[in-house]
Amino acid sequence: YEDGVFIFSTGPGTQKHKNVERNGQATVVVDRREPPYYAIMAQGDAEIGPSLSEEEEFKLAARYLGDEGTKKYLAKRGPGDGVSIRVRPRKYVEYYGVSEPA
User: Fold this and answer.
1) For a pLDDT cut of 70, what percent of the chain falls above it?
2) Interatomic CA distance for residues 78 and 47, integer angstroms
3) Kind plus residue range of the DSSP H or E element containing 83
4) By the 8 A CB rule, do 43 and 90 touch?
5) Phi, psi angle pair for 70, to nearest 5°
6) How many degrees, rounded to 5, is the angle at CA 26 between CA 41 and CA 91?
7) Average pLDDT of the residues of the chain
8) Based on the number of CB atoms within 10 Å of its own CB, is 20 exposed (0-12), middle (13-18) or buried (19 or more)?
9) Under a CB-based contact definition with an 8 Å cutoff, are residues 38 and 96 in contact?
10) pLDDT for position 80
11) CA 98 to CA 32: how far, in whole Å?
12) Model confidence over 52-63: pLDDT tens digits?
């Protein structure tokens, strides 16, 4: 999430790519799957763009894989091997669950 936009990288021709290309809309869900449960759903306009730069790919992947894991992951992929998806939310829906299972 950067400057009010969710940014994704995906392979060309993936279902995610086809769906955004077809309807120009997307929903992003971020959730916590342990108590206390929480989720936020962001619905908005989506667009397909060019592959992320190497710097952008590294920054994105490092959030999940760390620096070393990202280096290994990116070494397996070719440069420019993907498309970007940018989602600009129009609407947010939040969910707060119970803090302890019943």
Assistant:
1) 92
2) 23
3) strand 83-96
4) yes
5) -65, -40
6) 45
7) 90
8) buried
9) yes
10) 67
11) 12
12) 988 988 998 898
Cβ(48)–Cβ(84) under 8 Å?
yes
The answer to whether 88 and 24 are in contact (CB under 8 A) is no
Identity at 87, one-letter amino acid code: V
Q: Regarding beta strands 6-10 and 25-32, do their DSSP bridges make them parallel or antiparallel, or are they unpaired? A: unpaired
Q: How far apart are CA 10 and CA 18, in angstroms?
A: 11
Q: What CA–CA distances, in Å, run from 20 to 13, 53, 74, 81, 94?
A: 11, 21, 24, 18, 23
**Measured between alpha carbons, how far is 87 from 101 in angstroms, rounded to an integer?**
33
pLDDT at 12 over 70: yes
| Cis-peptide into 35, omega within 30 deg | no
